[in-house]
Amino acid sequence: MNPIPELTAFLKQLRLSGILDSLDLRNRQAIEGKLAYTEFLSILIGDEVARRDQKKVAMRLRRANFRGEKTIEAFDFDRLPNLNRSLIQDLATGRYLSEKVAILIAGPCGTGKSHLAQALGHCAVRQGHDVVFTMQTQLVGSLHAARAIGSFERRFQQLARVPLLVIDDFGLKPLRPPHDEDFHDLVAERYERASTIVTSNLDYDEWGDAFPANRMLGAATLDRLRHGAYRVVLDGESYRAPKPSPDSTRAPARSPAAAKAR
């Protein structure tokens, strides 16, 4: 008697149908290895746990809205010799998440700020945390749109409660009312409750320029972000530098007059 059809129905009823993907393989391994029933069952359950973990990671990555596969393994540390690699590796462990502090990343365009921020976000996802990645303009824009349709509080709380919020390109565009107030309220709500990663092209002492309409509000916002925060400065050449023209290596052409003179 073949027990597979009945077993399949039971597994589906228990929402364990993923076991079917490896059942045949594990059954052959159990027979060939003469495994005890408990060993066979442990391997099958282990497969199901791993499958569910992978599914959770994939779901968190989709919700995070990262822009491509920007991982810590793919980050080019050699291009930034002055970067404190030990600090980055320590941050990748996610210790700052339990500390509920921010990571502030500053540096010129093209030095890898967005990559590093998303890479740390990827690490957090793999460690079981929910993450949201957004640009400053998208962040305040989404809150503005939510206010227009009466769902501001819901959207605000979603952003306030996520364990890790990554805000890219802070200060690229100035924050004006009511966006500056929304940004401040979000930072204040997350203060000492959840971690935030912020990247900016501005030097740290220029971050206040992002609040041209209300410097006092900006000071209060940045005071909360900076408290206990880890600061990372990326200083190097832009990886977006244009490639040299194919003709740039050729010897310069002689003028007709010079050629005639020869």
Automatic annotation (TrEMBL):
GO terms for biological process: DNA replication. The keyword Nucleotide-binding applies. One of its GO terms (molecular function) is ATP binding. Residues 10-241 form the IstB-like ATP-binding domain. Keywords: ATP-binding, Nucleotide-binding. Transmembrane segments: none annotated. PANTHER family: ATP-BINDING PROTEIN RV3427C IN INSERTION SEQUENCE-RELATED, CHROMOSOMAL REPLICATION INITIATOR PROTEIN DNAA. This is Transposition helper protein. It comes from Aromatoleum aromaticum (strain DSM 19018 / LMG 30748 / EbN1) (Azoarcus sp. (strain EbN1)). The gene is istB.
